[in-house]
Design a protein that fits this description.
Length: 340
């Protein structure tokens, strides 16, 4: 069921609900627009919306920040009363930026940049926070990955290694072992690295045989420490068993009919995920007992399906999701009907 929609002023590529109380009603969205010509430029924006309380939802724009073209945004993971809630941005200028929520404004919440660092001459394509939100892993367009520490509003690169041959579209910390980082790339490789020393000398595994096209999403399961979901341009959602950490087993595969760009786990239903499927809209899928099924498809976007996330507020009768699509610049809020 549709709840609200709006059009952004750039090509929409990411949406992220804040997971922390009392800010769960905040939704961030980002854009990336390539201005072609003799002097091409990549511009973008970060938007902040108030969506309401989960029952009566809408899209109330609070702020727009103009910046370089944005490839990815992520809210921090930890929540110690709200003091460390932050939003990180990876952009086309090779910069990593971090914003914090400013709630001193009379008119409501806003984002305030507290740190920004050019970490590479390559483009920053993706990012992820570790569980304590003290480090950020960033994937770069030259196939490298960087681990950047974030302490006292300072960003400092502590590790960088060339892990892949082509664009590194996805990077993720293990949810239970902060020393492990997973990466995926256009080279079709799904890799894991131990970052305690030199990652290139401590590669835990690299699988190059299962994904038949580039790996564009890695999403560890929050409910199963040995389960990792991957998405690929080959249109397949895969679930990996990592109990044998050096030889992960692809135990489930589910065709979604479009490149699986983003996978987001339901905040309370184990095995239920929301997937952005590029040319085939969005899908809600469920994986259990080694089998996967599509519960619902959503095709009310007219362009590449890139951004997707679940609202994490408590008490609403129905799940709420945000999705966005690229060239039509469309952001939607809707309620899946078949989550259970």
């Amino acid at each position: 069921m549709d709840a609200a929609h709006c059009y952004l002023e750039g090509n929409a590529d990411a949406v992220e609900f804040c997971p922390h109380e009392p800010y769960v009603n905040l939704l961030a969205a980002s854009t990336y627009t390539l201005q072609e010509g003799d002097s091409p430029s990549r511009s973008g924006s970060v938007y902040l919306f108030d969506v309401g309380d989960g029952e009566d939802v809408g899209l109330n724009l609070l702020q727009r920040i103009d910046t370089a073209g944005v490839f990815d945004i992520r809210w921090s993971r930890d929540n110690d009363g709200g003091g460390n809630v932050a939003l990180a941005q990876a952009d086309a200028d090779g910069c990593l930026r971090v914003y914090k929520i400013d709630d001193t404004e009379v008119k409501g919440y806003s984002l305030r940049e507290v740190a920004g660092e050019k970490i590479s001459s390559s483009m920053c394509l993706c990012l992820d926070w570790n569980q304590s939100s003290t480090s950020i892993v960033v994937g770069l367009s030259d196939g490298s990955a960087s681990v950047v520490s974030f302490t006292d509003s300072n960003l400092e690169t502590v590790q960088e290694w060339k892990g892949h041959d082509f664009e590194l579209w996805t990077a993720s910390f293990d949810l239970n072992n902060a020393n492990l980082v997973y990466t995926g790339s256009d080279d079709c490789k799904f890799s894991c690295w131990d970052i305690r020393d030199s990652p290139t000398e401590n590669r835990v595994f690299q699988n190059s045989k299962v994904h038949t096209m580039g790996v564009c999403c890695i999403s560890p399961s929050p409910s199963d420490p040995y389960s990792i979901f991957t998405g690929s341009y080959d249109e397949t959602l895969r679930v990996w068993d990592t109990r044998s950490v050096t030889r992960p087993v692809n135990e489930t595969s589910l065709s979604l009919g479009g490149g699986v760009w983003r996978i987001k786990h339901h905040p309370s239903l184990s095995g239920v995920v929301l997937a952005a499927c590029m040319h085939n809209g969005f899908a809600v899928a469920k994986v259990s007992d080694g089998k996967g099924e599509v519960l619902e498809s959503y095709n009310k976007h007219d362009s590449l399906a890139y951004g997707a996330d679940w609202y994490r507020g408590k008490g609403q009768k129905q799940s709420v999701v945000a999705t966005c699509s690229f060239y039509d610049r469309l952001l939607r809020l809707w309620m899946p009907e078949n989550c259970i």
